[in-house]
Amino acid sequence: MLKPEILVNTPRLQMREFCAQDAEEVLEFSSDESMLKFIPGDHKVKSKKEALFVIENIWLKEYEQYGYARYALIHKDDNKIIGFCGFKYEPANN
């Protein structure tokens, strides 16, 4: 499967939708305590299976349902996902 197209391209970073192949990298940044302190709530991912669940059952579904979700941020020097940005659908805010 091909990685999704790049949506934003800057000198240092790229932004694109997540895909199933990103599970290992999502696990890596989502279990990093130094990063998690900047994200409200309990979002620690404890396994590759959990990372894949988040990608497939939250982010990919939100892209399809709402047209937006969290997007992968790729560090261009090493082509590694270093985190995410974007929007999160909050039903209570409707």
Mind explaining what this structure looks like?
The structure is a single chain. The chain has 94 residues and is α+β, with helices and mostly antiparallel strands. It contains 3 helices and 4 strands. The chain has a single domain (6-93), classed as 3-Layer(aba) Sandwich (Aminopeptidase). The protein has a 4-stranded antiparallel sheet, covered by helices on one side.
List keywords for this structure.
4 strands; globular; alpha+beta; 94 residues; Aminopeptidase; 33% helix
SSE arrangement:
Layout: E1 6-9, E2 13-17, H1 23-30, H2 33-36, H3 48-66, E3 70-75, E4 80-86
Antiparallel strand pairs: 1-2, 2-3, 3-4
Helix pairs in contact: 1-3
Domain N-acetyltransferase: 12-91
Protein name: GNAT family N-acetyltransferase
Keywords: Transferase
Summary of the model, kept short:
The chain has 94 residues and is α+β, with helices and mostly antiparallel strands. Helix content is 33%, strand content 23%.
Shape designation:
globular
Considering DSSP H and I runs of 4 or more, what fraction of the residues is helical?
25-40%
Largest pleated sheet: 4 strands, antiparallel
How many helical stretches? Answer: 3
Name the assembly state. Answer: single chain
Number of strands: 4
Radius of gyration of CA atoms, rounded to a whole number: 13 Å
Give the helix/strand class: alpha+beta
Which stretches are low in confidence, meaning pLDDT under 50 for 5 or more residues running?
A: none
User: Any guess at the CATH architecture?
Assistant: 3-Layer(aba) Sandwich
CATH fold annotation:
Aminopeptidase
β-strand percent reads 15-25%
Largest beta sheet: what is the strand line-up?
Answer: 1-2-3-4
Could you give me the name of the CATH homologous superfamily? Gcn5-related N-acetyltransferase (GNAT)
Tell me, rounded to a whole number, the average pLDDT.
Answer: 89
Euclidean distance between termini CA atoms: 35 Å
- Taken in chain order, the helices and strands follow as EEHHHEE
Keywords: Transferase
Protein name: GNAT family N-acetyltransferase
GO molecular function, one term: acyltransferase activity, transferring groups other than amino-acyl groups
Domain N-acetyltransferase: 12-91
